[in-house]
Hints:
The structure holds two protein chains of two kinds. Chain A is mainly beta. Chain A is built from no helices and eleven strands.
Amino acid sequence: xxxxxxxxxxxxxxxxxxxxxxxxxxxxxxxxxxxxxxxxxxxxxxxxxxxxxxxxxxxxxxxxxxxxxxxxxxxxxxxxxxxxxxxxxxxxxxxxxxxxxxxxxxxxxxx
Amino acid sequence: xxxxxxxxxxxxxxxxxxxxxxxxxxxxxxxxxxxxxxxxxxxxxxxxxxxxxxxxxxxxxxxxxxxxxxxxxxxxxxxxxxxxxxxxxxxxxxxxxxxxxxxxxxxxxxxxx
Lengths: 111, 113
């Protein structure tokens, strides 16, 4: 069964704006990951945050994790048209465990 | 480093027909996964292999789906017979043992008519 639930389901912004996506999950996790999927393509790993971390940065990406609320957020700063894609959060119980994906947020960035 | 290879990219079949998908993981990746992604949803795990052994196939509809990973490298996923609700993208992913974070293939888009 799917673990995460992303919010919003769809997001439309203009280039240069920031995009924030949220993810909630139900059970205890070891790690939470964010993936991007361009239309008709496979998923690309963006960033991983461990359950003992609260915030992580990678380039224009900022991820936060609140294990007490079982939620995470992904912030994309200074968005570009090339950021247009679906974004999924995925949780796991540690290495060797499969990922449980949410339904994703569809992001549209217009020039 | 070559990525995860999947074939075919697209497949259209009639219901009750059979279909097979192939996956070649990244060299050295012991763990291989097959996911099903229905349009508008996130990927759902079908089966997980560690080398050539099955780790988790609890969500695989075993009455019609089967998968194997001979010699712990390539893997095939088969559907027989296909149903309309099997229309989806089938994604293969692989990872090193003990490493969290997969590499996904581009997927096979199956349409059952």
